[in-house]
Amino acid sequence: RVLEGLKRKIRPINNGVWTSKTATSLALKTPSGKALIASLQPTQLGMGARGGPEILAILAQLLYRRGYVIATQDAANAFNNLERQALLDAIHASWPEALALFQLLYSEPSPVLFRIDAQEGSAGPPSYRVINGANGTRMGCPFGGVGYNVTLKDTYAQCCETFPEIIQYALTDDFPAMHPPPSDGDWQKVYERLHQRLALFDSLANPLGIVRNDKGRLLIPPDAPMPDERFLSGPQALRPVRDGLV
Q: Could you give the CA distance from residue 10 to residue 114 in angstroms, rounded to a whole number?
């Protein structure tokens, strides 16, 4: 980002602790762990689906060429913002066999060590600061991905059930939507449905600590009109682009 002249972003890096990673990895290989991962299908392609990202990318390309509108969607700092109580509630309901282990890892705040380097031109040593993180999954923890996916499972399912005409698959915190072209030529109805889907997602995901970022785009086929102004503003604003899928 620095070489491209973009603003720096702080990204914590953590490989996790070997002992906890071993225990959680083994838990996921138990019969109940495997059953849990299988229960995420068919909507969740980010876990338990071999080649999930490639499948979704190819599907989106094929549908876009057939006139579908593709709405991309991503969550802002998703893993770090997830409400831990929501995570524990989801595990209690979906994987009670692992609840004690999840509580051991996620019922107390996690210490995060920040290293603050001296400013450029200064010769002083770096300083350190410890922050106790009460939200989000632990970085480097094998339970992080499965915990997030299980917590968002019902949100994704309700979006799919409410809008059955929209093809929807998840890649953990990415949740794109692919709407077919209108049979009656009314594209504004298509945009309205996608707009309503965003509103439903926000109403379900925001209480879990999950908020969409501004990177989501609406990829419009070449022969489709632009959305009306009413869909271009507000919390669920659509951000249309053309020829955005390669």
A: 10
Question: pTM of the full predicted structure?
Answer: 0.84
- Cα 88 from Cα 236, distance rounded (Å): 29
> Which pairs from 196-203 meet CB under 8 Å and 24+ separation?
196/163, 197/71, 197/159, 197/162, 197/163, 197/166, 198/71, 198/73, 198/236, 198/238, 199/235, 199/236, 200/158, 200/159, 200/162, 200/163, 201/73, 201/155, 201/159, 201/175, 202/235, 202/236
- For range 50-74, the mean pLDDT: 94
Amino acid in the structure at residue 213: N
Q: Are 101 and 147 in contact (CB under 8 A)?
A: no
H helices present in the chain, as ranges: 18-28, 31-39, 52-65, 78-81, 84-94, 99-106, 142-162, 187-205
Q: Determine the average pLDDT of the residues in 213-222.
A: 90
Provide φ and ψ at 50, rounded to 5°. -65, 130
Band the pLDDT of 59: cuts 50, 70, 90.
Answer: very high
Instruction: Give the Cα separation of 188 and 25 in Å (integer).
Output: 47
Q: Which of these ranges, 55-64, 141-150, 188-197, has the smallest mean pLDDT? A: 141-150
